[in-house]
Specification:
about 425 residues, alpha/beta, seven-stranded parallel β-sheet, seven-stranded mixed β-sheet, disordered C terminus, binds NADP nicotinamide-adenine-dinucleotide phosphate
């Protein structure tokens, strides 16, 4: 039995996760194993990372065979699942984890699949004590962290009654790239997932146990409140998963508050409040660029959705499964997300404004995602006693409801990620960049 097993260790992101775990500063405090369907490919990973099976057990798993999945899941306390598209391959793994009471994290950015998992397995996970946390990569940890930490800063200034009105995240992606696995996941969403399912998972609070107020509508041009000089941006597809995860965190905190009404202090502390709205966009250098980006992005997305030959052509020019950014791209990429969160007005009509930043050094989608998901798994393996109360009951959770401050601290200690949050006092516009 190992603490953590990585499923899909021969894939592009699986290999990065294996490398991160193998050289982790806490390496002597945990054990991990690697699982893949091809033993010869797995041997290549062991050779590449200079690992020995005496130290890191190797497992064979084909996720189309339930007996394989059940056998490998029973060999670990925490499962990291990198085998996507999750709509196609993920459910058997979550089922096995829930059945055997194991903890689970993955890298999905597919809200249509997460909706199914919640429907089928949330209650069973609560019963078995299994902590299931989808979306533990770039989708959707940074967004979830920013709303969570902004709420804490807001309350540290305005007191427990301060609640969020609008939380806006502005993404700056330096040298972002795409892997073959991610592209195949996008194609699966376009070709295999019924349109009604996609539409249902795109509605506000589609993953939340409680419905809240509608978020601002998608548009061609965004701007970051309280920014001088102005920060403009365009619609970006990552918001589809990120908004759902942030809204599920909001809903799970609301539900916990309602169930916990005897503990008024705890209730007020975690609640984002009844008016909570969330939006995000990708930063562009001017308003004109933002509108142009939104237009071109929508046109490309439309062509991909509507025309098979366009998808065929895109497959030819995109990386194949197993491929991804080069080592140089991994090291030189960057991420900076600035979040501005505004409170609902207090009894005197005053608002509080908070600025929070999530900054990463390295390719956002892959290097940073491999660090983030590994730290989520390590939080489950090593920090169980100090995880938030919601987490201890199990269920299908979100990164912030499952890990809260424990994960933020782990990300900071990775040396690749900074998270900061401060007050922009009062309502006067302040410089944010
Ligand atoms: N949301 C985020 O921030 C984020 C970031 C990174 C990745 N991702 C997602 O993570 C997933 C993986 O991406 P990737 O680029 O690492 O993909 P990849 O390189 O294609 O790797 C996929 C892995 O799944 C394995 N696999 C496929 N079918 C299998 C089966 N039936 N049984 C067992 N193993 C099977 C492959 O094994 P073989 O080697 O034998 O083919 C490979 O190890 C994708 O869904 C991607 O979208 C998300």
């Amino acid at each position: 039995m190992v603490d953590i097993v990585v499923l899909g260790a021969t894939g592009y992101t699986g290999r990065l996760i294996a490398r991160y775990l193998a050289t982790h500063p806490q390496r002597s405090s945990f054990t991990f194993g690697l699982a893949a369907r091809s033993q010869s490919a797995l041997e290549g990973v062991f050779r590449g990372l200079n690992l020995s099976t005496d130290d890191v057990p190797a497992f064979t798993v084909d996720v189309t065979k339930p007996s394989d999945v059940s056998a490998v899941v029973q060999q670990a306390r925490v499962v990291i699942n990198t085998i996507g598209p999750y709509w196609r391959w993920g459910t058997s793994v979550v089922r096995a984890c829930v059945h055997h009471g194991k903890h689970y994290v993955d890298l999905t950015g597919e809200p249509h699949w997460v909706k199914d998992i919640i429907f089928e397995l949330d209650y069973a996970a609560l019963k078995s004590g299994s902590i299931v946390v989808p979306c533990c990569g770039l989708d959707s940890v940074p967004s979830d962290v920013l709303a969570f930490i902004a709420n804490k800063t807001l309350k540290s200034f305005g007191g427990p009654s301060a609640t969020i009105d609008l939380s806006t995240s502005a993404w700056e992606l330096g040298g972002a790239s795409i892997s073959g696995g991610t592209f195949s996941t996008i194609l699966t969403a376009l070709e295999d997932v019924p349109k009604q399912t996609m539409l249902a998972s795109g509605r506000d609070f589609a993953l939340s146990p409680v419905k809240g107020p509608r978020s601002p509508r998608p548009r061609m041009l965004y701007n970051l409140p309280y920014s001088d000089p102005p920060v403009y941006g365009a619609w970006y597809f990552m918001v589809l998963a990120n908004r759902q995860v942030v809204q599920r965190s909001w809903g799970l905190f609301e539900l916990a508050c309602r169930a916990n009404h005897h503990d008024v202090a705890a209730v007020a502390q975690s609640s984002y409040g009844p008016n909570f709205k969330y939006e995000e966009f990708v930063v562009q250098r001017s308003a004109l660029y933002a509108v142009m980006y939104s237009t071109i992005f929508s046109a490309i997305a439309g062509l991909l959705v509507l025309f098979l030959p366009v998808r065929w052509f895109a497959q030819r020019i995109m990386p194949s499964p197993g491929e991804g950014p080069s080592e140089k791209q991994l090291q030189t990429g960057s991420l900076e997300i600035t979040n501005i969160t505004t409170s609902s007005p207090n009894s005197k009509g005053e608002k509080i404004v908070v600025r929070s930043i999530f900054r990463g050094r390295g390719d956002p989608g892959y290097l940073l995602s491999s660090i983030i998901i590994s730290e989520c798994a390590l939080a489950l393996a090593l920090d169980g006693a100090t995880l938030p109360q919601i987490s201890k009951s199990g269920g299908v959770l979100t990164p912030m409801t499952a890990f809260g401050d424990i994960l933020i601290e782990r990300l900071r200690r990775s040396g690749r990620i900074d998270v900061e949050s401060e007050l922009l006092v009062g309502t006067e516009p302040r410089k944010t960049r």
